[in-house]
Amino acid sequence: MIEYIPFIAVVGMIFIGLYAVLFRRNLIKIVIGISVIESGVNLFLITLGYRDSGVAPIYTSLPAGTPSPQGMVLPVPQALTLTSIVIGVAVLALMLSLVMHIYRKYGTLDIRKIRRLKE
Amino acid sequence: MFTLESGSGFWNPLLWILIVFIAFLLLYGIRGFGRNTYKKDTEQTKAFLSGNKEPSPDEMHVKASNLYWGFTTSLNNVYTALRKMHTGNTSDYVLWFVIILAVLFLVFGVM
Amino acid sequence: MTVLDLLIEHAPALIVAIPLFGAFLMPLVSRVNEKLRNILALSIICLTGFFIWLLATDVLARGPRLYIFGAKNLASPMVRILFEVDSMSIFMITITVILAFIALVYSWSFMKEHDGLDKYYTLVLLLIASTLGMELTGDVFNFFVFLEISCIVSCALIAFFISEGEALEAAFKYIVVSSIGALFILFAIGLLYAQYDALNIATLAQVLKYTFLDKIVLVLLVVVLGMKAGLVPMHMWLPDSYGRAPPSVTLIIIGATLASFYGVLRVIFTLYGNVLSNAMRFALPVNVLVGWILIALAIISIIVGVIMALVQTDLMRLIAFAAVAEVGYMFLAIGTSIAALGSPYATTALQGGLLHLLNDALDIGLLFLVAGALYYATKKRLLDDISGLARNMKYTTVFFIIGLLAVAGMPPLNGFASKFLIYESVYQLNPILSIVAILCSILMLAIFVKVFYAAFLGPELPGFKDVKEAPRSMLLAMGLVAGLAIFIGLFPNIVIDTLVKPAADALVNHAQYISTVIGGI
Amino acid sequence: MDILELSELSVRIILGTLGLTAFGIIFGLFYKGIDRKLSARMQGRIGPPLRQPFRDVAKLFAKENIVPDHAIPWIFNLIPLVGLIAAISILLYLPIGGFPALFSWGGDLIVILYLLLIPSLSLVIGGFSSGSPYAIIGAQREMATIIAYEFPLAIIIITIAWKFLQKGATNVFSLATITATPVWNQVTGPLGIIGFAILLLVLLLVTPAELSKIPFDASEAETEIAGGLLVEYSGRNLAMFYLMDGVKTVVLASLVVTLFFPYNLSPLLHLASYPGMALDILFYLFKVFLIILFSVTLIRVAIARLKIDQIVYTYWIPLTLASLVGLILVMWDSVVMNLFSSA
User: Which of B86, C73, C217, C430 is the most core-located residue (most Cβ within 10 A)?
Assistant: First the structure.
């Protein structure tokens, strides 16, 4: 059972994030929601690569007696996660700067009032 | 080689262009027999308004949003519904995405 | 090995690397000279185009090509960054580079009076690089990375007119929608990796079993990419962002949107090519189900697109809704070809759909360029505010007429050729599909006749007495697109035989795509 | 393709275009004369002589060709010519006079459907470009009418093609295929015949709207918007539109004849060579006359003009439903007959 907890957490985080995006009105909260989804997905990737009592996949600093490569956690998901985190930071920064500018132009952070483009 | 074949029909653009070109030459010639003069800068070049005084172009101009009035009014119900759908609210955009996702999950037997 | 062989071998990497490198060169060169920067940007695209041409001749003659980063061969485990180029990728990158070239020519005059142009050119080249990367990559994670880059860069470009609140709003909506979409794609990639321990499309396609998780992946990928391509009812970000982006880059954003459409094709035809027709659901093969779902969404897209476009008052937003309808035509064609996989008309439909992809990019692009020219000349966005511009803008009028006839699919322009193929293939699946398609294409005609009247005909309003014709570089760009539209309209078979047919064959023949990688171990 | 074939083809194109232009214009005006005479007689008038349309054209050529102030001159002058040329080009894809179509390999029904749009479109753009409020109102009505009647028309064309496809024909949109085996021979039971009869009726009702004749002439409506989209046209430009109207009449009647009555008398009477040809041409002209009589003259004498929203309603609700019923009947035709034969 205990090994399922990360996956439950992943699903939970994605749904919390979606909830924030769908039902919160504040732009900042929507941005936070997207971040939460992203963390959920990153957690998912990391969990995929986890091995019970595995060590970091660095050959040069392998603890003595660890079977290689079975004793190491998978390196690929970690690489994917790193890339995803970097991209996530870029998206987050861009979104926050947009929110800032939108606040200057519209004078509000309420998503329901920021809809000059419709129909 | 120049005929586009769909398996159900044909379309040869070059042939059509040739036909149009020949017909154009012929009819342009025929049209040339007609009189091409008129009295410029007189009453006759004014827009016909059943004798009413011609208003300024600004007022006489039929605006783009008034065009196809009959068509849009006859589809009024559709437009009301579609306008309601295009709220312009970002959350709704994501909501539609989630809805389609959910529907397809149902269709494919995931949920 | 001659130099030419070497160039061809490394062309897939260079095609992405050159614009990427050029992008970061732009701020530097901008300090030196503005004109030099414009010339450099254009020559970077020309160089990319040259490599694309080299690669295209090779791939079309000799079949798919593999490019593995950091290794000569692909060894197990199959986790390498790799590009795989088949005729379909060639078709897409050709379109992208043509659009990019035209957009840059147009930008020369259009953006002249704005500042921040160093960043503008950086972003444009980055967008081109990421779009090309999406179309060349043979690796799902790589696809995600390029998708995210294109999403970030597009967002920045949409917000380029930062003094307008609407541009910011459109950019925010775009980034919310597309970053959520991209995260779901990453989730799907994680699911695939968890099951099959591989990330490249070919390996995945070979081992895919259509398990429960694979169903989730299929739905996630198709829905997200469909949203990024602009399928109704997930299209609403599209009119906002197309309508507010600078018209000079809308063309490239269209290219990026079409790359998402390409992603749908890749997922359905290649990734799930082995399993779709074998698996069953509701006593139907899954390919029929997927095909009909796409057809249903496509029909809704076509109808909603034209009906909404009919009442728009903002010209660029109107064209964007027409773009939604055009995307619907493409999905209609490929949906038909998926649902009827294997029958002769499926091939015709696929070819029609792919040709329509090219035509849609050109026609909608041309209309955006014309809209941009009108905006440049009058500084007005609303159709109600302009009138009688045919007197002062003769060339623009002619280009608009060509765009109007092309987008409405009137003979003898390019739109007719592809719509002709679509009508005469989809009716075999169900006659209603063709009927709706024909009717909506006539509505499209009505929409653009209205625009033609509102912008170009009508009495001369006092405010527009001394409107100037668009500058030369903009006319050149419009002329190039119009020329291409006429050429494809008059000689559709040349384009179909050289580009479209190989692309369609490559899609249907996914075994070849797989064996290129598997054989390359 | 060698040089001989190429030269033969070019001679065919040139002579065909010239000949059919003459044919279209002369018979278009001739049928216009008949139509006017007949409708006058039906209304208890004497009516103009048969050659009156020719005189009208001659008179228009002698009149001043006014370009109004608010018009865009080059579009205003070019558009009538474009419409006339497009109408004439359709004639080359249709079987005329009982002969096979001149270039049935160059265009099919979908092409004809789109080419038919061009004359109507030219009227619309001509109206818009003349810059008079009356013309603009007329032009937008014409555009709404086009959208309206195109729905049933598309259903008819796709249904016919679909039926041929089910019967295993290839190139089903090609007019050569359709004239070789008329639609009535494609059906297996009474349902199909009823279905096609409904479609024929709808097509006959689409024809007056294509030609903007009463009751579907809201775009011209002399009594309320003074000629509508033609209000600013005069002289030779108006003559071009006048000729276009005549040619379109022949085109549409020929289309109906081709789709539903592509029969010839000569095989029946075992006539060959020139007498057979002459008979076929006469029979074809008679069929065209009948179509014009039913779908133009009779309807226009009997019914008053509809308002534009009524036109849209008529085509989108009753006629579209009728043609959909036709489509369904045609689709069920073979299914139902199979049921009977298996039971």
Answer: C217
